[in-house]
Amino acid sequence: MWDGVAQLSPAVQALLGTLFTWGMTALGAAVVFTTKSINQRLMDGMLGFAGGVMIAASFWSLLAPAIEMAGQDAWPAWFPAAVGFLMGGFFLWGIDQLIPHLHPTSPLSEAEGIGPFKRKRSTLLVLAITLHNIPEGLAIGVAFGAVAADFPSASLTGAIALAIGIGIQNFPEGVAVALPLRRDGMSRRKSFFYGQLSAVVEPVAALFGVWAVFVMEPLLPFALSFAAGAMIFVVVEEVIPGSQENGHKDLASIALMLGFTVMMILDVALG
């Protein structure tokens, strides 16, 4: 089914995968051309669904392969997964403390990082989603790189499933950036531009992930777990709270479970 893709270099595969995820972000941002606002229940449901996809991808596509790979080396099977996972979470936490940003569901007074109030709201919103797209792009790059490096537990269909899952959850992220900017009075074109801009970092991070696999091949289980930890940090710190702060907790929770199920099916069926 994926014979044509299999003949491409891992860098091109990762680039195509993240161009898809970027396109899904742009598709979400394009909602501003049809409306200035979106039903809050629908938005919370989409965020919950995105959180479920990210949690499932973190385990099925990243942590589980990392544990299996480590079991074939001298490491205890749990060690790279545990260390890499914690490093990924703490790394993103550290970046959050430094880079000025604003979560899409938060008021300007809750902007984080160093000197956030010196920057425009549009810049802060884009920086927030951009920071959180880095582990997604890295995960896709590492997944395709692992396939090219012939790791037994890595599969092309699994890497493609990961890209599809991340693309699905990128749609509400594009919406979450573009619509607040539109409500603040920014033009439709500018709102769309900033909304899709937040995913530009994913192809760059993916290419870095592919490069890292070949340069630091023995550390691949750590790299996979690192990406998983960073993604889980995003889910817990932003996605889940953002989906529930408007009072739609049951809806967001059910949507999260649906998102987890869809991503699990994608990964198991394709991988």
Description:
With 271 residues, this protein is mostly helical. It has one domain. 75% of the residues lie in helices and 0% in strands. The chain has helices spanning 3-6, 10-29, 40-70, 78-98, 121-148, 156-183, 188-197, 201-215, 220-244, 249-270. The radius of gyration is 18 Å and the shape is globular. The two termini are 12 Å apart. 56% of the residues are buried.
Judging from the principal axes of the Cα atoms, what is the shape?
Answer: globular
- The low-confidence runs, each spanning 5 or more residues with pLDDT under 50, are none
Summed up, the helix count is 10
Helix coverage percent: over 70%
Query: What is the residue-mean pLDDT, rounded to a whole number?
Result: 83
